[in-house]
Fold:
Amino acid sequence: MLTTAPTPTPPTAPVAAEPAAQTAGRDALAAWRQAIPTNLFIADPSLQHLLRMYLGEDGYEDIAPGLAAFGSQVMAEIDPAAAINDQLENHPRLERWDGIGRRVERIAFHPSYHTAGRPVYETGLLALSARPGTALQQSAYFYLLTQCGEMGHACPIVCTMGMIRALQTVGAAELQQTYLPPLIATAYDRKQTAAQFLTEVQGGSDVGANAVQAWRDERGAWRIRGEKWFCSVANADQMLITARPEGAPAGTRGIGVFLVPRCLPDGSLNHFAIRRLKSKFGTRTMASAEIDFLDAVAYPLGDLSEGIHIVTELVLNTSRWANALGSCGLLRRATVEAWQFARHRHAFGGPIIDYPLVAEALAEMQSDLAAALSSTFRLSHLIDRSDLGLANEEERSVHRLLVNLNKYWTSVQASLGIRRGQEILGGNGAIEEFSILPRLYRDAVVFESWEGSHNVLCLQVLRDMGKYGLHAHLFRYLEGLLGEVTAAGLYTTRLELVQRLDEMQRRMHALLTADATFQQAHVRRVLQRLATLIQAICLLVEAQWELAQALPTTKPDLLDFFLNRYLRSGYDPIRDFDYTDRLQRIVTGFVPVSL
Ligand SMILES: Cc1cc2nc3c(=O)[nH]c(=O)nc-3n(C[C@H](O)[C@H](O)[C@H](O)COP(=O)(O)OP(=O)(O)OC[C@H]3O[C@@H](n4cnc5c(N)ncnc54)[C@H](O)[C@@H]3O)c2cc1C
Structure:
């Protein structure tokens, strides 16, 4: 008798209807995703107000259409491409040799990298560097870009901005002719990017310990020899490198700055070899490498004995400003995501945004974001004034001090704020495919050490105050800002800030007249307070402007909340009697929607 094997029963699909509660939960999540703005510029009245305040109506109208177009492109094109690009299997790869065994040291990118990059360069964001007085416009573009956590291009953009500034200011005419035009090109396939390599394996903070050497060959051409340990934008066409020319003194005084082109004039690869790409916690779509310079051909950028000043004032100060803009961008996106999530997520019978502890977390994020934007756009305004030759000595001093202080503090605000946002998302806040927040957090951690660690920046500010008395200029500048505030509704807050500024001047005097060990032990605490005081005063000025324009504003409440957090001490039931009402006003006043 023939027997046949029984036909296996096909596995049944999970057809059971989902319980209503689960469907409702999933629908709420879908509604949350739907509520994320499709145009980051249109959905951001705070950004629009800041630009209008600094640029006036005509200046604002000139740049708003470009920003509105980019605000939509960021979400429609760059955001999805950046998410694909950040997946582990799509990260940049090192290809050291070509098919026939020639050294190429090429970085291969996933197609999504280029999808993300094309619209960025086409905005003309880098071309703006050729036009003095456009720092606020550049800031707005960069702030919008970083809201999608796209670091594969954001980092090269920043490095390129620094190289452009160095070339414009100290580059020899023939270097400018050859190397500037491709850096400001807007066509993605023709543009070039730059990198900046200072850090060596023995340490990044102590640039004076740099050991990479520069020497002259028999034809008088400069050559670079040695290893750089952290080389972001390893695909860069132009590398700005610190190196010690032969015979130069030890320490920072002996540091020179050079431009090292990736390729030599005949098209062949310059003399360098990439050891490996680093496997990084954040900013993973951008390639960071360890690179050996094997007598690479180099061109001096400016006077070689002025290297440390060139690198600090032109390059690092540019990147520190941009770093702060990036921190604002990351924090803005996290705030929008968390705010919308809290509106749609229900627990214990209601949306979680109604619970005071959630509202408080959102208010923390919102007030830190407003504060970070405030100090950073103030910095952009100072850069514009300086580039247009309008800044006086006081403003130049404030810029020098703020660029370091603000980079430190905004990077801390971004990391803390994004973590707060992850907390609002609950366990989902730790899941990569659920939201952008884990990626934003990883990037924010890198932002904290990029362009100078916290301590190093605080010590730089301390030195600038002790040696050049920059704090005196800053205090006068802040007094001037407070003097501009005349709105009756802001009178009490203004008075309080006048007192806090007075207190700060006494504190600073005590710090600066103490011995060096005491100064270093306390400087970070004092500077954190100073940074928040600067932000509070900038917020007050903005509140005054918004009130004068009869615009809807949450700034007075945000500022009050901010002062409670950072500059007032302890819980005060009399002062805080309307705490939950204020939270409510802050939280409901944040309406990130786009048309
Ligand atoms: C992803 C990534 C990409 C990077 N890309 C680049 C790049 O392209 N080019 C580049 O040049 N660098 C790059 N860096 C390096 C970065 O700039 C450095 O990490 C940073 O400057 C700190 O240097 P370090 O890591 O060597 O730390 P160190 O200098 O060794 O410092 C270690 C710790 O000691 C503290 N410290 C040091 N000195 C003092 C002091 N006097 N008082 C108190 N505390 C002190 C620091 O604050 C820090 O907390 C990159 C870093 C990362 C993470």
